[in-house]
Every structure is written in C-alpha cells, then in structure tokens.
Amino acid sequence: MDILDEVSENESKNGKEEKVADDKVKKKVVIDENNQVKTIEARESKEKGQLRQNFETTDWLWRISVISFLIGYLFQVLSYGTPYWLAVTDATGDVMAIGIWSSCQSISSCTFRNEATDCVNSVRIFGGVGVICGLVVTILLYMHIKKPDSKRCLGISCVTLSFISALSTQISTAIFGRTIGCSMPTLEEYSWTWSLALAITAIILTVASGLMFLIIVFKDISRQNYKGRIWRRRGVNIT
Fold first, then answer.
1. Three-state secondary structure along the chain?
2. pTM of this prediction?
C-alpha cells in the first residue's frame, strides 16, 4: 500500500507539474515515418513581447490615451502629406485635388506647389511643428512603455507637446481654410475633402489624449501627496 500511495502521490505531483508546464510549453503532435504518433514539446518564444506586457499592465486610462493619441497622430501625418484637402472644379469640369504640398489631376499626375507665399509657408510650418511634436510624444510613450516609471516630467511633457501639436495643426488648417487653399486662382467650384477631415479628427483625438494625460499626471501627483501624508503621520519625512 505504501508503494501505491507513493506512486499516486508522484502521479498527482507530475500532473500538477504538467499543468504548470503547459502554460509555458507548447505541445505539437506529429506522425513519423513509421506512422507512430509523437508529441513534441517546444518552448514558445514569448507570445507577448515585453512592450505588450508592459502596456497591458498599465492603467486603463493610460492605454486609452495612448491608443487615441497614436490614431490621431497617424491621421495627422496622412493629412499633412496627402493632397486631398480641397477639390476644385474648373470651368471645363475637370477636378483638381489641392493640398499643402501639391495639386493633382489624378494620382499619377501631381505637381508640386512651388509658390513661395506667406500663406503656403505658414501652413507648412505650423503643420510641420504639429507633426514633429507628435513624433516626440510618440517616442516618449515608447520609452515609458519599454521602461515604465512614474516620472512626472514624462507625463507633463506628453501633455504639453500634445496640446502644442493640436494647436499647431489647428492653426495650419485654419489658415488653409480661411484663405481657401491659400488663394488658388480660378476657383469655380470647390469642396473640402478627406485630408482636411483627417486633420480635424487628429486635432480632436490629440486634444482628448492631452486631457487624459493631464488627468493621469494629476492622479499621480495626488497619489504621491497622499503617500507623503501617510508617511509623515508615521514620523517619516519623504524627500
């Protein structure tokens, strides 16, 4: 009986170990040349990368703000580089797509806007500032997700640069819109198209992300102050 008990105990232990191992080991069933079924165990190379693991462990508000910002930044880059801000129909009925950098009769027929006016230069400069600020925020977010920390300066930088990016893009679109594409000549009929819609959507998402980043910073400050009060009540000074 003692031997049977030891065997059953060993089997139960082995069963537990196999269950634990199943979480980390991937089993693959194959048939060899002799038609025999074999189970091959192969170590998985981490289904989830370190970045994804770190991202999933962050606060839900942080995740929403990051996703919102990245979508907005993608829209911002697309709107800045595409020529479909304004669709113009001339007297002959031909439709021309006009953007910040070029004007196109079709996808394969585009010409660079080489007019060096203050309007065009202002639209490009403010739009470029918005894109650069968005790029810096993206790099900061990547650094935070790769090595999570609670540094306030990182959150404050994300807040500040997000609002600067949104403001610069807003100024760029406002100039382009108020001047109707920087005074393109012979405008018979025109309509705003999807590049401008992407820019406006990017502004909304970037502002929303900046507000969420700001809430996260305030929550972190409040949490740190609360911990400091608790330790001071215990006679410990936090510096």
1. CHHHHHHHHHHHHHHHHHHHHHHHEEEEEEECCCCCEEEEEEECCCCCCHHHHHHHCCCHHHHHHHHHHHHHHHHHHHHHHCCCCEEEECCCCCEEEECCCEEEEECCEEEECCCCCHHHHHHHHHHHHHHHHHHHHHHHHHHHHHCCCCCHHHHHHHHHHHHHHHHHHHHHHHHHHHCHHHHCCCCCEEEECHHHHHHHHHHHHHHHHHHHHHHHHHHHHHHHHHHHHHHHHCCCCCC
2. 0.69
